[in-house]
Design goal:
The complex is a heterodimer.
Chain A (H helix, E strand, L loop, with lengths): L12 E2 L6 H4 L4 E2 L3 E6 L5 H15 L4 E5 L4 H9 L5 H6 L3 E5 L7 E3 L6 H14 L3 E5 L3 H5 L3 H17 L3 E7 L17 E10 L2 E11 L8 E7 L2 E4 L15 E2 L4 H6 L5 E2 L3 E6 L5 H14 L4 E5 L4 H10 L5 H5 L3 E5 L7 H15 L3 E5 L10 H17 L3 E7 L4 H11 L4 E10 L2 E11 L8 E7 L2 E4 L17
Parallel strand pairs in A: 3-8, 3-9, 4-5, 4-7, 7-8, 15-19, 15-20, 16-17, 16-18, 18-19
Antiparallel strand pairs in A: 1-2, 9-10, 10-11, 11-12, 13-14, 20-21, 21-22, 22-23
Helix pairs in contact in A: 12-13, 13-14
Chain B lengths: L5 E7 L4 H17 L4 E7 L6 H4 L7 E6 L4 E4 L5 H7 L10
Parallel strand pairs in B: 1-2
Antiparallel strand pairs in B: 1-3, 3-4
Classes of the chains: A alpha/beta, B alpha+beta.
Chain lengths: 487, 97
């Protein structure tokens, strides 16, 4: 290994340039060694390898050789073009070399002793031609279908990986996922430096891709399964900033949009960059409260991104207009942007990515998600929580103040969810309606708010032609046993 | 059929024992079965690495029958004469071959 500082040195890493993957591997793949990438058909292993080569060639000054056993250079170039990769151009610039190794058992007769020196010669020639530092073998297991003598093949593969290691070439070896083993041919026996598995699951007709670093010799790594996406920008592993808890915590406060609610929050409102959960049963005014928050933010000249999971923006703005909170003017001024999407149209990770992209494009100060409970239609409680953890981390890193509404119902599962996600929130506000005599009374209270003195009062509120009005303190509120319990 | 000219190419990488054996076996088989109507070109990939791509060479030694068409490949040191003859289409392929 090259000379390194004394810091309990992790091994050298070769960055993949794949967003998120370098985070969970703490820097990339083991430099100068082979990594096994195993997954079923269509799991994205070829794309992972191609991304590793393309990024190496384009961003890290490391030319790469792609040895493909299944598709020829033209087919491969076509497959990855839609993802923004221009292989022919890289080939022209001598940053990439594609060698298609074709084996067809039906045209080959085997007689007597042989070895795979031809493959070695070709590989060495290719590496020398462009000064390659990276190699991808996709999918070398194909050789098991092309050659009968598996004894020779196994011995030669072992020699090949040693050969690549000796030359300090960072290599991605893709393989088909096996039933018992990581790979169908047990390649993990030869490649012990790092093993990554890819998985493509369908839960209630919605597909989710996952990636896991199963093994990484000489390095720490995230051991969870992480969702990843393949879209027009290539492959991305979803942000795993949650491994760290180091976002800034500003002292600045922002108004909730309602002076009386600010009053209940230490007289100043929310902390900027904090997360607020607003929960209540149907028709309690959650969206209207959110609209007040948006109105105040836009009035301060801040940009607000509003994710709707239930209604269309038009419908929502119309309803708010009739509730006395007209936020549609901010859309025209470019301060308010809506993103409406049906939760069940995509898997959770696609939603997460869409949110990321929207946030990165619009750069909002404030984000509202209304209602997050609808995401439960797409994934399990645990999945939703893990997704929200990532969303929240992402928003906090950017100092964005976020308001999430949550629909409470008698349904047990939803209540459990609320308990699970509330721990991610800095402030939790509850709204409820109850019957008093023959009319309904609306109530609001702050269940928790980290880092600030907050009111433990339950206050009544009502809808007026100018939006929501919360009673001033001390006013008599309707009684409901047990409704004032904090956490 | 019997008068076709055989154009053969033997790929090796250096003078390895396997390569030498393969060449000797090939000469013997050709002299016995193709006397007067064959040519052998030996390609050493150590000297000409770029040539490995064209004929899709992977295993070594590889014997390529370039003519008559279709192209045939036989890999190994050609020690099993019977299989070499089958591979060159000079013997009918048995069912279990």
């Amino acid at each position: 290994m090259a000379s390194k500082k004394l810091e309990l040195s992790e091994i050298d890493k070769a960055p993949t340039g794949i967003p998120g993957l370098d985070d969970i591997t703490h820097g990339g793949l083991p430099a100068g060694r082979p990594t096994l990438v195993a997954g079923g058909p269509g799991s994205g292993k070829t794309l992972l390898g191609v991304s590793f080569l393309v990024n190496g060639a384009q961003s890290f000054g490391e030319p790469g050789v792609l040895v493909t056993f299944e598709e020829n250079a033209e087919e491969l170039a076509r497959d990855v073009r839609s993802l923004g990769y221009d292989l022919p151009r890289l080939v022209e610039q001598k940053k990439l070399l594609v060698d298609y190794v074709h084996v067809d058992r039906s045209e080959i007769e085997e007689t007597g002793e042989y070895d795979l020196e031809g493959l070695f010669v070709r590989l060495e020639h290719a590496i020398k031609q462009i000064g390659a530092r990276r190699v991808m073998l996709d999918t070398i297991e194909t050789l098991f279908g092309g050659l009968k003598d598996t004894g020779i093949l196994r011995a030669e593969l072992r020699r090949l990986f040693r050969w690549l290691r000796d030359r300090q070439i960072t290599t991605v070896v893709t393989a088909e996922r096996g039933d018992q083993l990581f790979t169908r041919q047990g390649l993990e026996e030869y490649i012990t430096d790092a093993v990554i598995t890819l998985d493509h699951r369908v839960h209630e007709q919605i597909s989710t891709r996952r990636i896991r670093v199963v093994k990484y010799r000489g390095s720490t790594h995230g051991t969870n399964e992480y969702p990843f996406l393949i879209d027009r920008d290539g492959l991305q592993v979803l942000p795993v900033t949650s491994l760290l808890l180091e976002h800034a915590a500003p002292d600045e406060r922002v108004s909730s949009g309602l002076p009386a609610l600010d009053d209940m929050l230490g007289a100043k409102g929310f902390y900027r960059g904090s997360t607020v959960l607003l929960s209540g049963t149907a028709g309690t005014g959650k969206t209207t409260l959110a609209a007040h928050f948006v109105e105040a933010a836009c009035r301060r000249g801040e940009k607000c991104l509003y994710f709707l999971f239930e209604e269309s923006p038009q419908q929502m703005m119309r309803n708010m207009r009739s509730a006395g909170v007209d936020i549609s003017k901010w859309v025209a001024k470019g301060l308010l942007q809506f993103h409406a999407d049906r939760p069940n149209r995509h898997g959770l990770e696609t939603h997460l990515l869409a949110m990321h992209q929207a946030v990165e494009m619009f750069e909002p100060d404030v984000v509202v998600m209304d209602p997050i409970t609808n995401l439960l239609a797409v994934g399990t409680t645990i999945d939703v929580r893990s997704m929200l953890t990532r969303v929240i981390d992402f928003l906090k890193m950017r100092g964005i103040t976020a308001l999430f509404t949550s629909l409470t119902s008698a349904d047990q599962s939803l209540e459990r969810t609320e308990t699970m996600i509330s721990s991610l929130m800095d402030t939790w506000i509850l709204v409820a309606t109850l019957l008093e005599g023959n009319h309904r009374v609306r109530q609001i209270y702050v269940l928790k708010s980290r880092g600030m003195p907050h009111s433990d009062e339950v206050r009544n509120f009502r809808f007026t032609p100018h939006g929501i009005e919360i009673d001033s303190p001390g006013k008599r509120v309707a009684k409901r046993a047990g409704s004032r319990r904090g956490k | 059929m019997g008068s076709d000219k055989f154009e053969l190419r033997l790929y090796v990488a250096g003078q390895t024992p396997k390569a030498i054996r393969a060449f000797a076996n090939l000469r013997r088989i050709c002299d016995e079965h193709l006397a007067g109507r064959y040519s052998i070109e030996v390609v050493d990939l150590v000297e000409n690495p770029a040539l490995g791509r064209g004929d899709q060479i992977l295993a070594l030694p590889t014997l390529v029958r370039r003519l008559p068409t279709p192209i045939k490949k036989i890999i190994g040191d050609l020690s099993n004469t019977e299989r070499v003859l089958v591979g060159l289409d000079l013997r009918p392929r048995r069912a279990n071959a």
